[in-house]
Amino acid sequence: MTADLTSADRLTDFLTTYPQTMAFSEEDPGTVFDRFHTPDAVYVSDGLRLDRTRVVEHARPARKNVLSCEVDVHRVVLAGHEAAAHYTLVARMRKGRVVTTHVAMFARIADDGRIAHVDQVTRTETER
Known about the structure:
Blueprint (H helix, E strand, L loop, with lengths): L7 H17 L4 H8 E9 L2 E3 L1 H14 E14 L2 E12 L4 E12 L5 E13 L1
Parallel strand pairs: 1-6
Antiparallel strand pairs: 1-2, 3-4, 4-5, 5-6
Helix pairs in contact: 1-2, 2-3
């Protein structure tokens, strides 16, 4: 089953639940990724290109190091197959750090409702 992210409510739900599922689910990270993204989906985050393999590889250490994460979605705008979102992700790490990441995301949604491409810029703050 794949997700349909073509409404603001569904995209907001994705932004709040996807990090939780990737970090804490028993489900394989690749399966989670595939539910929400096209096979050739790419994230370009702060100029760094992440394809499916790199996103899934990033999820594995997160599952070991993150105690909790919360997402506060400030704004979502959709226009056809284009989406923009501004949100904050707060991750509490096992060693006590709190990492707050502010994200401005621009996405292209495929015809099947899954994410095909993301360009995002982030600003990260770390509390010790």
